[in-house]
Specification:
Strand order of the largest sheet: 1-6-5-4-7-3-2-8-9
Number of helices: 20
Helix content: 25-40%
Number of strands: 25
Radius of gyration: 36 Å
Length: 627
């Protein structure tokens, strides 16, 4: 006679939470039940290692799914170790008691065969889709079978049962459809197949199911009949557990496509088998192209996370730093601590160690690509270089040491991409700084007046065309003891002592002229002075302080930026014919001096791509010069 037993009060509350909130998707129930079945077979395997009377023949062990649409039942049968009456009571009667966890503690496996089951927890996820659960089990070495039955939080019964073979059979009576949810899908072959392939494809034992197929009807030409055929749904052996020597480039590419990591082909793969402080396997891919939503809020970074071959998370963001968020792939570890369900990870030391290891592996792979496959690296950099620069800038430059060697910039030498290391390695001995110029495009930068003096000295200039470039470089500050210097900076450090004296003399000789021009441009420029950098152009703007003109443009384009202003200096080429006109106007015609000052200032603004406050005034000034 069946005796009804109640769950403990804590168990009732946990069961309600389990069904309604812990699991984010109802389909998870099948992953949990299959994992429990796999754990039960693992227990027999482990016992066979220490019990000479047991012979473990892997072909005899499997998990079977059976659908009965008429009675709305889904049955999951395994050939595992089974449970006694006491074990049914302990493992299923008290929610959150893990039979597999207790087994693991009692029998520390030394062969690496890990058991991760949370039998008293994941089992109850079945109530998300079932009104009733019936578990019939016969344990190894016993002649008795027992049936555990429950319809939810009210309680359960345990009664004697008949079962010929060792193992466990779980029958789920699937819920009726509601307006919000359709439960029929869990009685459909195609849906169950897709769930198995998604979460349990790499369970090490066959997961079997009778699958409907079609064949020509005997004695006819165009008629077909349906028939049932038992098929193994899962592939069992994951690619990451195979020897690298067995795998070809095509195998990795096919895996990339099968997992839908991207619609492109991977540029490079990285197969990791770590066996140190933390044990894990991983296959990582560097994509060839940027996903269409990569630079949007909708893009979600992360790697697939498996525990002992069972998919735990589709995208575990904690495994990748943001700056390597473009990497696709998976990680499988037996060392991860799981709590409540396989969905919820404890953010523990193991996960942190794996993430740190992966970060270093990715960096090493990218450096290797830069060194040995330059064309492929530049292809990668075109797609994801911007993300690396954001990584340098973010977190106040905390990641600059990790990323600075991966950066590339177009160079004035041959107009090619160069690394910071390549730039510094070929600097002349007398060159103090790493020079750079910022602008909208390379063609615009090449026409900047400020660049002439630096190039004339034979110094290489890096071209910054991304709006993040200067901000990232400000975080790096210096590379191999060489500071970065914008070609628009006040002091370029390119003149010798004789040139410095000559420039100082020019400023002293024209002090009154420059003061008059500065007075007219009060509030617009900080100073007017003779230029040390101009050669063929009459005028340019330079800056003092940390904020450059290009940085000002970027910041002003942002909402709520306020009145952001770089400290500008108007520099005049004292060797240009225009300067003679300025001096003449200063001596003879102050009105003309005002006109020339306004024109030169606006000319300098246009060269920098800065807006002119009053275009009408500017065009009128041009007309005055023409008449």
């Amino acid at each position: 006679m069946a005796v009804k037993k109640e769950f403990q009060a804590e168990s009732k509350r946990l069961l309600d939470m389990m069904i309604n909130s812990i699991y984010t998707q109802k389909e998870i129930f099948l992953r949990e039940l299959i994992s429990n079945s796999s754990d039960a077979i693992d227990k027999i395997y482990y016992k066979a290692l220490t019990d000479d009377t047991l012979v473990f023949n892997k072909e005899d062990y499997f998990i079977k799914l059976t659908i009965d649409k008429e009675n709305r039942t889904l049955t999951i049968t395994d050939t595992g170790i089974g449970m006694s009456q006491e074990e049914l009571e302990n493992n299923l009667g008290v929610i959150a008691k893990s039979g597999s966890l207790a087994f693991k503690k009692e029998n520390e496996a030394k062969d690496g065969h890990n058991i991760i089951g949370q039998f008293g927890v994941g089992f109850y996820s079945a109530f998300m889709v079932a009104d009733k659960l019936t578990v019939t089990s016969k344990t190894l070495g016993s002649n008795e079978a027992w049936r555990w039955e429950s319809e939810g939080a009210d309680g359960y019964t345990i009664t004697p049962a008949e079962k010929d073979t060792v193992g466990t059979e779980i029958v789920l009576t699937i819920k009726q459809n509601t307006e919000e949810d359709s439960y029929d899908e869990f009685l459909e072959e195609y849906r169950l197949r897709s769930i198995i392939k998604k979460y349990s494809d790499f369970i090490r034992y066959p997961i079997k199911m009778d699958v409907t197929s079609q064949r020509p009807k005997e004695g006819t030409e165009n008629e077909f009949e349906e028939y049932k055929e038992e098929q193994t749904i899962n592939s069992m052996v994951p690619i990451w557990r195979k020897n690298k020597s067995e795998l070809t480039e095509e195998d990795y590419t096919n895996f990339y496509m099968e997992k839908r990591y991207g619609f492109d082909k991977p540029l490079k793969h990285l197969h990791i088998s770590a066996d140190g402080a933390v044990v894990y396997n991983a296959i990582l891919f560097i994509p060839e192209n940027t996903p269409f939503d990569y630079y949007t809020k909708e893009y979600e970074k992360g790697l697939e996370l498996y525990s002992n071959g069972v998919l735990i998370m589709d995208k575990c963001g904690d495994l990748l730093p943001d700056y390597f968020g473009f990497v696709k792939g998976m990680v499988d570890s037996e060392d991860l601590s799981l709590n409540i369900s396989r969905e919820l990870l404890q953010h523990d030391r193991q996960l942190s160690l794996i993430a740190k290891n992966i970060k270093n592996k990715i960096k090493s792979q990218l450096l290797s690509l830069l060194k040995d496959e330059r064309e492929n690296y530049e292809k990668f950099y075109k797609a994801f270089g911007r993300q690396l620069k954001y990584g340098v800038y973010s977190d106040y430059g905390a990641n600059k040491d990790t990323l600075q060697d991966l950066l590339l910039f177009t160079s004035s030498k041959e107009n090619k991409l160069v690394s910071l290391d390549e730039y510094v390695s070929r600097m002349p001995e007398d060159q103090k700084y790493i020079y750079y110029a910022a602008g909208e495009s390379v063609s615009r930068i090449e026409k900047l007046p400020q660049i002439e003096g630096v190039l004339e000295k034979g110094y290489e200039v890096l071209y910054f065309t991304d709006d993040i470039d200067e901000f990232a470089i400000k975080m790096i500050m210096n590379y191999k003891e060489k500071e970065f210097k914008s070609i628009s900076s006040g002091d370029l450090g390119i003149e010798d002592s004789a040139e410095k004296e000559e420039n100082q003399a020019q400023d002293n000789d024209n002090k009154e002229l420059f003061e008059a021009m500065q007075a007219q441009l009060e509030g617009k420029v900080k100073a007017v002075k003779a230029s040390k950098r101009l050669r063929s152009h009459p005028v340019c703007l330079s800056t003092e302080g940390e904020l450059t003109i290009e940085m000002e443009k970027v910041l002003k384009a942002m909402p709520n930026s306020g009145d952001v202003q770089a400290d500008k200096v108007l520099e005049i080429n004292v060797n240009h014919d225009v300067f003679k006109s300025l001096k003449d106007a200063f001596a003879q015609d102050k009105e003309k001096l005002s006109l020339y000052t306004s024109l030169l200032y606006h000319q300098a603004l246009l060269i920098e791509g800065l807006p002119i406050q009053d275009p009408v005034e500017f065009t009128n000034d041009i007309c005055k010069v023409m008449v």
